[in-house]
Amino acid sequence: MNGLLKFITGKKTAPVTMLIGLIFAGLAFTVFNTEATETTPGTGLPETAESVQVAKLRMSFQAPMHRLHSLSTPPNRSSPRSS
Fold this sequence. Notes:
Blueprint: H1 2-9, H2 14-29, H3 50-72
C-alpha cells in the first residue's frame, strides 16, 4: 500500500497517474458510452393522468387563440403612393 501511495504522489510518477486517469475518462465517454434511451412514455398513460388532461385542455385553447390571432391581424393592403 505504501508503494502505491509513493507511485501516485511521486514527482516523476504523478503525471503518469494523471495520464492513466485521463485515459480511463476518455474511454468512459467514447468506447464504453451507451446510447441514450427514451425516458418519457409515448403512450399508455391513463385518461385520468394529469398530463393527459392538461394536454387535452391545452389543445382546446390553442384552436380558438389561433383563430383570434388571425382575425386580429389586419390584412396586408398596399396603398398607392402619391407623388
